[in-house]
Amino acid sequence: MSKAAILVIDDEAQMRKLLEITLESSGFGVLHATTGREGIVAAATHPPDMILLDIGLPDESGHEVLRKLREWYTHPIMMLSVQNSEEDIVRALDNGANDYLVKPYRTGELLARIRSLLRRSGTDDATLVVSAGDITIDLAARTVKKGGATLKLTATEYTLLSLLARNAGRVLTHQYLLREVWGNSYVNESQYLRVFIAQLRKKIEKDPNRPAIILTESRIGYRFAGADHI
Amino acid sequence: MTRCSGYSMVKLFINTISQQRQCLYSIVTVALVSLFCAFVSPYIGYHVVAFILLLTVSFIAMLFDIVPVLLTALLSAVVWDFFFIPPYFTFIVSSAEDAIFLMMYFVVALTSAALTYKIRQVQKVARQKEERINTIRLYNTLLNSLSHELRTPIATIIAATDNLQHSNARLTDTHRSDLVSEIAIASMKLNQHVENLLNMSRLESGFIQLKYDWCDMSELLYDTVRKIEENKVSQKILVQVAADMPLARTDKGMLEQVLYNLLSNATLYTPASSTISISAAAVDNVLELVVEDNGPGFPPQEIDMVFEKFYRLRNTATGGTGLGLSIVRGFAEAMDGTVTLQNRVEGGARFTVKLPAEMSYLKNLKHE
């Protein structure tokens, strides 16, 4: 397989330089754009395998660029933002961004997220078994095993866990989870989500207080830890 | 901050009243004073009434804007003429003496109104100047403490990168990795300072929007501790949350910053072997968070000052902008809560944050 091409849309020259070093040294091909307009043109002429898109661009906001890209671009888009502004992040995720990172970020984290997104977009949705730690989720048989022993989950717990697992590595917003698991009228009833996540962690995590499978994305949502697809 | 005297407190209050309302209050005052004068006029004579009315004008001039004050002056002259100068209930002034008196009354009332107003303007300018001087003084303190706190990590980064760029050949691998970790520590510190500065300016702007959401306290506490531990702390940090702790409705981002700053403070100012503990409890509808340590505690005479902006303990060598704890107090108060500091009887410091919060015991219900 040839090396994956990543388009970086960011107006900060230093940031682009650093991303180029990081990505090229990890075996990715890197394309650059400094404005939203340039980015859209670049994406259309040489469609990359994924896009890193900064929210704060000089000509038009990253949200606008994301909206235009998503009209035809189906590969992963990861948002980069400087402020820890949860509204911006939630909005981007709701509008089709696959992930986000807040600057300053750790290089290891960036690469892990990119790999996870590229791996996911390479496989189709037919992934039937997802595992993380000593947990194995069989989406076809609707069973969850912990170290070989079948776990007893309630229907809601299973729906929530399988939704997270099917999107392994990807952050799902509180609103999205509430809507998908409980329905439209529950979008603001975040206490349900908190309670069920806590219950699930008690059943599947080694140390529920230091979760390694269902990770908290503070004020945004939850993420199933970068799992290995089988 | 300047302390407010009783008079300026009244002024502050009056400044919030619209000019129309001030006019209304002036008319009512003149009416009430006139009514009083109507009763006493037979005993004191109508010339004394003029002085009582003049006194009213001066009084109004001390409080209200120029328009209501001029209105008062004009109105009181008319009232005096119409109701008190014989013949009553006409604007006719029969004696030349009264005509001169009325004219003089009018001039004196207007002059006193204008003069009082002018004096107030001058006072206002002086006050603004004083406030500006205070602000400048505050900024100087800020700049002094900040330039040190910001320059130290910047200097570290510049020196370390210089070394790596120019003396690379002479460096051993250990040196190189030491330099890199110095850069890492310095940039984390810079990031933390910038975070604090941004939070401070959020507080100063007075524009803080609270975003309340249901919050799992155990998750929040462990998350915050995990973030603190990323800074390679040497102390042991214990988390205590009761198993039946309800969900609390609070601003998670702000509360996390409060706890982070309290923990960060504890890790900076206690010896490496200390134990820090953080706990959350629900008492009725109050969320109670406690961060305590078994370090040296605080000098009793300085306990009241530690939450002040830029305040740093005397005789402390370790850096700090003096912003961390003032942000803790600012955020706690923005959430209608309080933060207090006590020295523990057993030794060490105890910070207690109390926030009013709706609780949800859904957690303890059997559902589905």
From TrEMBL, chain A:
Instruction: Determine the domain of life of the protein's source.
Output: Bacteria
Recorded hits in InterPro entries, A to Z, give: CheY-like_superfamily, OmpR/PhoB-type_DNA-bd, Sig_transdc_resp-reg_receiver, WalR-like, WH-like_DNA-bd_sf
| Residue ranges constituting the OmpR/PhoB-type domain according to the UniProt record | 127-226
> Where are residues bearing 4-aspartylphosphate located in the sequence?
54
**Boundaries of each Response regulatory domain copy?**
5-118
> DNA-binding region located at which positions?
127-226
- Keyword set, alphabetical order: DNA-binding, Phosphoprotein
A Pfam family matched in the record: Response_reg
Q: Which PANTHER family match?
A: KDP OPERON TRANSCRIPTIONAL REGULATORY PROTEIN KDPE (PTHR48111:SF50), REGULATOR OF RPOS (PTHR48111)
Q: What is this protein called?
A: Two-component system response regulator KdpE
Q: Which organism is it from?
A: Nemorincola caseinilytica
